[in-house]
Design a protein that fits this description.
The structure holds two protein chains of two kinds. Chain A is an all-alpha fold. Chain A has 17 helices and no strands. Chain A has one domain: Cytochrome c oxidase-like, subunit I domain (Cytochrome C Oxidase, Chain A), CATH 1.20.210. The relative contact order of chain A is 0.12. By secondary structure, chain B is α+β, with helices and mostly antiparallel strands. Classes of the chains: A mainly alpha, B alpha+beta.
């Protein structure tokens, strides 16, 4: 019995289908003016990878500076700009669009049996908005940067810094609309464009997760836009909404900002949950354990996620009773995540498990997200939050969730659907190595930061007391390994575009509708509208299909 | 080790063995917080081990070689209820335990000694009731509850003492407070933990915890000759507050004696407790806080008094239990030599003195 489920067509005769969404039309314009969700997903993939490497290089600079206790590699002002740009680029230009705008864009219409998203031109518009936002961020960087921190805290951002707050704010504002349009498009598509037989409870969990994330995008992002407009007005004409000298309230900004930025972490992580549900089912050949619980826990996270924002403000002098309420709700929002972790774990039970690269990233995700989630409880409990907030404990916590969780899920998804998107396999051995290297590098980078935070080392410090150095050196060493872990996929995935093995339509023997069509898919996805007559993750249905094919060919 | 130079080896050994892994516990609340912290570490380790163990065991038992055909299982309500209710219960325990700590840390006892702290880019200024001033330093005794009343002069700052496990934001335009009781003499880190601009990482200092005897010595050595309330009194006179707040029968402002902590009837029909925040607000924004029976004629002092000045005034009013001194000042104002007002604290309010804590000339008010 082989230890893999990969089933590729005979390489000597297999060909990439002549007609597919990549070859349909040629020329740059056919890409830049396309309405095809798959082409837009590819455009997104290229652009977010570009910004990921900018953000990653900035992270490298941060870790280099923190190698020594003194602020010696760069001036403190430069350091402040570097970590601000790292945050802005990674959050608004990488994490928020990462899975939804690439994999979500590519797969949601196919998974629900539709030809495209409901609003193809709005989809293209949202990519252009993203690009404009990205260009503004690059403009900000080359014209001197900005040093407010990605949180734009007032009154620092309105009255005390002379850097490019306006262009950064505009960039985030515009990129925010890109995300609103994506979310809107997904909601309309999932409601109106499901193929016959595709009931809500036959949807792949990937679609459920994106639906929940889309609600957050559509309802949360406008509040961020409002907060940014108010900062801009305060900075330019001094309307005084946040200025205590004019009767304004500086805490109001915190409320507005976190009303978006807390749900934003679920915008980032929910699509990752979707990816994990797909990979864990495929590589253990089993229906996801407790499909309904996993589906509804996504929705529960989206709903509760809106009512926990003030846990970012426990030490800011909000009322003690508000702290009680928000701390309690924070504990409640932790429960659906715990449910998911256990449901995924029990999906493995009595499965038939193989260990291809997407599955390795999935295991990495489960371990690191568990740590990230549990340390979130340390911060949600109001008493320990006092000691741990604003230190490296916070930095470690959200990197475990965002990088250990989301980035692992993103890489799992990219490897999983790479054969579908490109029609070719990535090289298996080296990518398994990359997954392991990433996991080791990640832990070495961010685990010491939990200890640093417990010791009290504040975040956003260019210089620190010398007794913190050893742990910082470990962290920087880990970042080097992590950098290798991220460079490898870029190299071998690019290589595989030309030299990878021909994947065929269903290399993983997966059940989703996307695996029943050719790779890469046709522009219109399906030759005829599919009819869904089975549940999601129905591997017995897949076996029957295969048996039928064999008999009809034979 | 003969291929490593002995000097380098010694350096490495020293370096690797001299780093901190856990912060000192130097306050009464610290062991209580650590108890919850280690409880949560324990729960996390158990949870993580459980997940890791299950994944490993399933991967071994149900790998494709051993278990070629998967058995389809829908789910299990019983199991799912278990892993909903047990985490929920544990999280609720942490919530209650954490909330108890939170209320303890942010509810100062009535007998706490109050020290004012003003944050500004990029320094901490502490004002002791006895008139001692410190910059980026704080001297406190063991065994006595200390309350800090914090405010920022510009952006958000955050006053963090990891060894005490306490932290509080200093916010522009409002007082916040935190308290602690130090237990172990020593020197501990003070950090600003809220990002506040260019020199954020230089906005650090030292907390010096002294035995009560040493603290008395320090107080005597560091006095500026005038208490904080006395500074406030001079400011009160030089801003001519006593022209109205003088308790005379025809006074245009209410008497301030014993006003601190009192419940006031306001002209808009509401009531207010005259605490630090109320006193500060009614100096800077008087038209919003008119006591019943008085005309809204008090001018605003917004922009005219620094936060340090407001603190001195508040401290003065807090300690004002009769109008005797006000009347005295009022009666002697006419007798003051010409030009004395120019040397008053109000005139020197904009002068910054970022000097060390004890370097100021005696008898002047540092702002």
């Amino acid at each position: 019995m082989s230890s893999t489920i990969v089933s590729l067509p005979d390489q000597s005769t297999a060909r990439i289908p002549k007609t597919n969404f990549i070859t349909k039309e040629n020329g740059l314009l056919s890409w830049l003016l396309t309405g095809d969700h798959k082409r837009i997903a590819v455009l997104y993939l290229i652009s977010i990878t570009f910004f990921f490497f900018i953000g990653g290089s900035l992270a490298g600079l941060i870790r280099l500076e923190l190698l020594t206790p003194q602020s010696d590699l760069m001036a403190t002002d430069t350091y402040n700009k570097v970590f601000t740009m790292h945050g802005v680029v990674m959050i608004f230009l990488f994490l928020v669009p990462s899975v939804p705008a690439t994999l979500g864009n590519f797969l949601i219409p196919i998974m629900i049996g539709a030809k495209d998203l409901a609003l193809p031109k709005i989809n293209l518009l949202s990519w252009y908005l993203y690009v404009v936002g990205g260009i503004l961020v690059i403009y900000t960087m080359v014209s001197g940067g900005v040093d407010t921190g990605w949180t734009f805290t007032t009154p620092l951002s309105t009255h005390y810094v002379n850097t490019n707050v306006m262009s950064t704010g505009l960039a985030v504002f515009i990129a925010g609309f890109s995300s609103i349009f994506t979310g809107l498009n997904f909601i309309v598509t999932i409601h109106k464009m499901r193929c016959p037989g595709m009931t809500w409870f036959r949807l792949p969990l990937f679609v459920w997760a994106h639906y929940a994330a889309s609600i957050l995008m559509v309802l949360g992002t406008p509040v961020l836009a409002i907060a940014i407009v108010l900062v801009a007005l305060e900075r330019t004409v001094g309307i005084g909404v946040f200025d205590p000298a004019k009767g304004g309230d500086p805490l109001l900004f915190q409320h507005l900002f976190w009303f978006y930025s807390h749900p934003a972490v679920y915008i980032m992580i929910l699509p990752g949950f979707g990816v994990i549900s797909e990979t864990i089912s495929t590589f253990s050949r089993k229906r996801v354990f407790g499909y309904t619980a996993v589906a509804f826990s996504s929705v529960a996270i989206a709903v509760f996620g809106f009512f926990v924002w003030a846990h970012h403000m426990f030490i800011m002098g909000i009322s003690n009773y508000a702290v009680l309420v928000f701390s309690l709700l924070t504990m409640l929002v932790a429960v659906p995540s715990a449910i998911k972790i256990f449901n995924w774990t029990f999906t493995l039970y009595k499965g038939s498990i193989t260990f291809e690269t997407p599955m390795l990233y999935t295991f990495g995700f489960m371990g690191l997200f568990t740590i990230g989630g549990l340390t979130g409880v340390f911060l949600g409990a109001s008493g320990t939050d006092i000691h741990l907030t604003e230190t490296y404990f916070i930095v470690a916590h959200f990197h475990f969730v965002m990088v250990g969780g989301m980035l692992m899920a993103f890489l799992a998804g990219i490897h999983f659907w790479w054969p579908k998107i490109t029609g070719r396999m990535y090289p298996e051995k080296i990518s398994q190595l990359a997954a392991v290297v990433t996991f080791i590098g990640f832990n070495l980078t961010f685990f010491p930061q939990f200890i640093l935070g417990t010791l009290g080392m504040p975040r956003r410090y260019a210089a620190y007391p010398p007794e913190f150095q050893v742990l910082n050196v470990f962290s920087t060493a880990g970042a080097t390994i992590l950098g290798v872990g991220y460079l490898l996929p870029i190299l071998y995935l690019t290589w595989s575009l030309k030299y990878g093995e021909i994947a065929g339509s269903n290399p993983w023997q997966a059940t989703g509708l996307e695996w029943q069509i050719q790779s890469p898919p046709l522009t219109e996805n399906f030759i005829e509208t599919p009819i869904m007559d089975h549940e999601a993750y129905d591997y017995e249905w897949l076996d029957r299909q295969k048996a039928k094919e064999v008999t009809s060919v034979g | 080790m003969d291929h490593i130079s002995p000097v380098l080896w010694q350096f490495l050994v020293k370096w690797m063995t001299n780093f901190a892994l856990f912060p000192p516990e130097a306050s009464k609340i610290a062991p209580q917080m650590d108890a919850l912290y280690f409880f949560m570490v324990l729960v996390s380790l158990v949870g993580l081990t459980l997940v890791a163990l299950l994944i490993t065991v399933f991967c071994i038992l149900y790998s494709k070689e051993r278990h070629p055909v998967a058995e389809q299982i829908e789910g299990s309500t019983l199991l799912e209820a278990t892993w909903t209710i047990i985490p929920l219960g544990l999280f609720l325990v942490m919530f209650v335990w954490g909330a108890l700590l939170y209320f303890r840390i942010y509810t100062p006892p009535a007998n706490a000694m109050n020290i004012y702290v003003v944050g500004k880019q990029w320094m901490w200024k502490a004002e002791h009731p006895g008139g001692q001033h410190e910059i980026n330093a704080l001297h406190i005794p063991t065994g006595k509850p200390i309350q800090l009343t914090l405010i920022s002069q510009d952006v958000f700052h955050s006053f963090s003492i990891p060894a005490f496990r306490v932290k509080r934001e200093a916010i522009p335009g409002r007082y916040t407070s935190v308290w602690f009781e130090a237990t172990t003499p020593g020197t501990y880190h003070l950090f600003c933990t809220q990002y506040c601009g260019t020199n954020h990482s230089a906005m650090i200092g030292e907390i010096t915890v002294l035995t009560p005897d040493d603290y008395k010595k320090w107080l005597a050595e560091s006095t500026s000759g005038m208490s904080l309330a006395q500074n406030g009194e001079r400011l009160f006179a030089s801003l001519s507050c006593n022209a109205c707040h003088n308790a005379k029968p025809d006074a245009r402002g209410p008497s301030l004696a014993n006003v601190y902590g009192a419940k006031l009837a306001l002209s808009n029909g509401g009531t207010a407790i005259a605490d630090d925040a109320y006193l500060r607000e009614s100096i800077l924004n008087p038209s919003q806080h008119i006591t019943q029976g008085y005309a809204p004629i008090m001018p605003t002092y917004q922009g005219q008094i620094s936060e340090d000045g407001v603190i001195a005034l508040v401290e003065y009013i807090k300690n004002l239990d009769s109008n005797y001194r006000i009347e005295q000042t009022l009666n002697t104002t006419d007798l003051l030599p010409e030009g004395d007002g120019k040397n008053s604290p109000a005139a020197s309010r904009s002068v910054e003195q970022p000097a060390g804590q004890n370097a100021a000339p005696k008898g002047t008010v540092k702002q």
